[in-house]
């Protein structure tokens, strides 16, 4: 080999999901940890030639027909609330949730109600037979003449079913069970999911039909499959809930046609799934007489206020390190509130076993519930119940300060509607708005003032 001969440069490899590069091929991306996404970069590719005939020529923007992007209600009000009014023709939705949480039941109800409105619906099940889907449809009274069922796992057959039925709504349960014969690998891997999603999205846009894809989730609750799947679809919906609770929450993580701060509430029972336009009563214990260790707060799920009861119990530790057990609230945040009570409000709680739980299986994730947790624990230690009809809203800081949270007027209005008459809130949280009629407000600046604002007993 002469000195003038150029050495061939070593190939480089790039992840198609996140762009991470490597000098050699690996099966798993070192950045996003996705499998099968690392491919050789810099390969010579055949450039795509311009199309000879344009099927849909570009038009001036003022001549575009906007009626094609109008949402059509499904008949399930809570589902339509999350979507922003209903399903848009040509839109592709991805519904994700844990197994057995009720995704198929909800979508079968959506399919039947849409079919009863006079539109054709195709329900493709890759996990169950058509007979199994029919049995569940009978149980939840979801039979409709215009609802077509098919049990298929081949992508080509699914596309042929769409051509034959010509539906206005297609539900595929689930996208991880469909595979293409032209792509190597089993159903559910990265290449198959990408091909299936791309083919179905192309069909939806070309025909102007709405498509709902059911997606699996991983152990940590994220959507399984390549991240490009979430980027391709128009709407990503999370279906949440605890197995031991009947409450189910539906929220939009991504929505090109509506808001992402709306939450739909459903009650899942043996006879089906029913929307809950007013779910606040589910999160209250129903005890008439005040009990020590309980406090009510108002949390915001999206733009919807939910009145929720927090229960706390402090018991003398039996020896060793005190226990910290929580259900429905963050364990680390509860430990922080205990430390603030001990240090800033002189409430001796750290040497006690602590148990904190919510009513109804709801999970409180926003800091606005801090003040209610603190008052419930102080009430339990002093064995003095808070006055009946009291709520508490506010974030507790490490300095013992009670910080303002968003939507306090809306929270108080919901609490007043339920029948609550007292509220402990951060100082100047109302922002000049009027206090609801019949409600007495205690504005506090710190946790010590909050404990003393309500007569739960003397502070040690």
Automatic annotation (TrEMBL):
<dbReference type="Pfam" id="PF13481">
    <property type="entry name" value="AAA_25"/>
</dbReference>
<keyword id="KW-0346">Stress response</keyword>
<feature type="domain" description="RecA family profile 1">
    <location>
        <begin position="68"/>
        <end position="217"/>
    </location>
</feature>
<keyword id="KW-0863">Zinc-finger</keyword>
<dbReference type="GO" id="GO:0008270">
    <property type="term" value="F:zinc ion binding"/>
</dbReference>
<keyword id="KW-0227">DNA damage</keyword>
<dbReference type="Pfam" id="PF13541">
    <property type="entry name" value="ChlI"/>
</dbReference>
<dbReference type="InterPro" id="IPR020588">
    <property type="entry name" value="RecA_ATP-bd"/>
</dbReference>
<feature type="binding site">
    <location>
        <begin position="97"/>
        <end position="104"/>
    </location>
    <ligand>
        <name>ATP</name>
    </ligand>
</feature>
<keyword id="KW-0862">Zinc</keyword>
<dbReference type="GO" id="GO:0005524">
    <property type="term" value="F:ATP binding"/>
</dbReference>
<comment type="function">
    <text>DNA-dependent ATPase involved in processing of recombination intermediates, plays a role in repairing DNA breaks. Stimulates the branch migration of RecA-mediated strand transfer reactions, allowing the 3' invading strand to extend heteroduplex DNA faster. Binds ssDNA in the presence of ADP but not other nucleotides, has ATPase activity that is stimulated by ssDNA and various branched DNA structures, but inhibited by SSB. Does not have RecA's homology-searching function.</text>
</comment>
<keyword id="KW-0234">DNA repair</keyword>
<keyword id="KW-0238">DNA-binding</keyword>
<dbReference type="GO" id="GO:0005829">
    <property type="term" value="C:cytosol"/>
</dbReference>
<dbReference type="Pfam" id="PF18073">
    <property type="entry name" value="Zn_ribbon_LapB"/>
</dbReference>
<dbReference type="GO" id="GO:0016787">
    <property type="term" value="F:hydrolase activity"/>
</dbReference>
<feature type="short sequence motif" description="RadA KNRFG motif">
    <location>
        <begin position="254"/>
        <end position="258"/>
    </location>
</feature>
<dbReference type="InterPro" id="IPR003593">
    <property type="entry name" value="AAA+_ATPase"/>
</dbReference>
<keyword id="KW-0067">ATP-binding</keyword>
<dbReference type="GO" id="GO:0003684">
    <property type="term" value="F:damaged DNA binding"/>
</dbReference>
<protein>
    <recommendedName>
        <fullName>DNA repair protein RadA</fullName>
    </recommendedName>
</protein>
<keyword id="KW-0547">Nucleotide-binding</keyword>
<dbReference type="InterPro" id="IPR004504">
    <property type="entry name" value="DNA_repair_RadA"/>
</dbReference>
<comment type="function">
    <text>Plays a role in repairing double-strand DNA breaks, probably involving stabilizing or processing branched DNA or blocked replication forks.</text>
</comment>
<dbReference type="InterPro" id="IPR027417">
    <property type="entry name" value="P-loop_NTPase"/>
</dbReference>
<keyword id="KW-0378">Hydrolase</keyword>
<dbReference type="InterPro" id="IPR020568">
    <property type="entry name" value="Ribosomal_Su5_D2-typ_SF"/>
</dbReference>
<dbReference type="InterPro" id="IPR041166">
    <property type="entry name" value="Rubredoxin_2"/>
</dbReference>
<dbReference type="GO" id="GO:0140664">
    <property type="term" value="F:ATP-dependent DNA damage sensor activity"/>
</dbReference>
<dbReference type="GO" id="GO:0000725">
    <property type="term" value="P:recombinational repair"/>
</dbReference>
<keyword id="KW-0479">Metal-binding</keyword>
<comment type="similarity">
    <text>Belongs to the RecA family. RadA subfamily.</text>
</comment>
<feature type="region of interest" description="Lon-protease-like">
    <location>
        <begin position="353"/>
        <end position="460"/>
    </location>
</feature>
<dbReference type="InterPro" id="IPR014721">
    <property type="entry name" value="Ribsml_uS5_D2-typ_fold_subgr"/>
</dbReference>
